[in-house]
Amino acid sequence: MRATAAAVAVQPLKPGPAASAAHASSFRASNGLQQFLDLLADVPRARVLDLGSVWQSTISFFVDKGYRISTEDVLRGWKEFITSEEERQRAIPSGADSGKLSPQLLMANFLQDALGYPEHNFHGILAWDLLDYFDADLVPPLMERLFQALHPGGALLALFHSRPAEHFRRYRIMDSQTVEVVAAPTIAVHAHVFQNREILDLFGKFRSSKTFVGRDQVREALFLR
Amino acid sequence: MWNKSAQNRPSSKADARLAAPLPSHSAMQSPAEPASSHAPAVPSSAAEPARPALGVAESAIDSHLKIAGEISGNSDLYIDGEVRGKVRMAGARVTVGAKGRIHADMEARELVIHGHVEGSLHAAESLHLGASSRVQGKVLAPRIRIDDGAFLRGTVEMIAAGVASKPVAAAPKMPAVIPDVVPVATEHEEIIP
Q1: Domain map of chain A by residue range?
Q2: With an 8 Å Cβ cutoff, are A224 and B2 in contact?
Q3: Which residue of B14, B39, B175 is in closest CB contact with A178?
Q4: ipTM for this model
Q5: A95 Cβ contact list (under 8 Å, min separation 6)
Q6: In which residue ranges of chain A is pLDDT below 50?
Q7: In the predicted structure, residue B173 carries a pLDDT above the cut 50
């Protein structure tokens, strides 16, 4: 179904490459994270939004700094939204108007509930590689919502793969410069490799950016609103 | 901060506070609770804990019950049913089982969540989100333990032990211009036009 596969190809949780690599986590020295944290250093009780899954170590890291950390696993939320939409469509009798929604409309509906934060609420947003898992045409409304939620002067850290990611990964902070890349059951497949120009266009409303390229060819991009 | 010397600083050593376990949670754990590990998130169905045996002074709302209104008291409470309203058990431990569905703000001495909760969670001593937990709302506690696989959509705030919830202060403002952010061209840097 184009409406769903275009955005996030939901994978069954069965043994496969991702599952076999389930324990193959690695550590990544992250200049992007370090500079992200530097930008927040002077903000007392900074508000940070983590768009990945919730981890004890990440929560403890920010709480120990006196920050207020919010989490919203957008990919998991999107997957559940898509699943419920598929169930809704299956429940429609054959022959009736299926009410099938375009990917863009699906995203609009998803955002009616997701990422509903007050304007300028966060001083930092950790997007990790979230954007890679959406088709390029679905990302702008997501970006717009994140831009609104970010305080002027705030920072957003995102990762972009230079080639389709073979395995689904999650990220958790171990210290101010180290991120553990955790292999996880696949809930979405890599959808799009963003070129540098696309990234700059996507973040066109931001004030400036800085990109670090790791040896694994994953780009860490830090954007300032 | 954008200069190379800052980028190339060696990694600081791991923060021992992060590696160290939280203060003892033995009082929070039921025998059937899954252990937290570095394993990736697992499907919630695989991590659902069995219902623990009731304690001497523990009340229970089983999975066949639906309750709307306010629940208050001082005995420990196990909820595997559906609750809408408010849960105020200031001196007690409240456990939401894997089948529990809570649409309520919850306040207790200890909170252990394995099911679904929509509402704020305020624990005077400790909060444990199990691997199968799904929480949407604000979380306040002096100690928080989160198992891998937990789902939390909301804000985490640490409070001093025994402190009642208090109004949230307004967000501090960022400076209009971050003084040490001077975009300097490097081979990996691009300035948005």
Answers
A1: 2-224
A2: no
A3: B14
A4: 0.78
A5: none
A6: 1-23
A7: no
